[in-house]
Give the backbone structure.
Amino acid sequence: MKRLAATLVVLAVLTTTASAQDWPSRPVRIINTFAPGGAADQLARIAADHLSTAFKQQFFVENRAGAAGVIGMQAVAAAEPDGYTFGINTLSLSVIIPMTNPKAGYDPVKDLTPVAYLAGTPIVLVVSPKSGIRTLKDFVAKSRASSKPLSYGTSGLSSVGQMVAQSFELAAKLKFDVVPYKGAAQSLLDVIANHIDFATPTLTSAAGQIRGDAIVPLALAADKRMPDYPDLPTFKELGYDVVGVNWFGLVGPARLPNDIAVKVNREINVVMSKPESQQRMRADGMLVDPMDVVQFRKFIADETVRWTPVIEKSGLLKK
């Protein structure tokens, strides 16, 4: 029996190695964990187009939106680790939701394999032109003078926008009331109408309204100003240590063969480093930061460490 078991293990290893060497021999799906048309969908299609050319095999995008991306991520976690299923993950899906939702249905460490960093877009605090607020100093003064907490919109509970708002709340010693929406678009419409006091969308989500002067951006949750938005200051330079970038990456199921992960990672870095890709990302409020597989894995671990205290202080920690 022991000899049979050992033989089966060897055969399994040889089969996996052979399949990895032949990969990809059939179409590969990339699960977009969010609705079509958003940043995740855009990045998934950029990746799919390039990988199809690089590997001479079709990579196609499958939309599995729902539950703030959890449904799609569950599908990735449950897939065979054969290199034929990847998915779009984010800061929320890799760090925040697993820590705040005990029913997420997957463990990002045990059930997923980090493959490649795609791009990141920082959170921006925006208000309505009707509010009369033009600077973060004006905003803080209004908040402190208000008899009740200011209301703000996010693209859902446990979103990066909520984490940034709560980080600013702690740093400035203010008090806010969160109003969760199904997406950033709805929250921005209510900001424009001045139905809520402010919102914390990603810069990508707000870029069009900012360019059209429909909303007023006050501060960016980034380490430095964005190249295509030079007049938009960061929280840091305004005296608040608040940084929150909603990043997007590519992951596979647990036990994905490392050589497949490395091959995909290499090609993702190629396409994201192209000048035309970077120009397109910058205009949409995103920046790329190429990493190898090991660096991306460490990046996710570092993000977990960084956001855990914020989640704990928010009272959202469920585990």
Summary: Residues 124-238 form a domain with the D-Maltodextrin-Binding Protein; domain 2 fold (CATH 3.40.190.10).
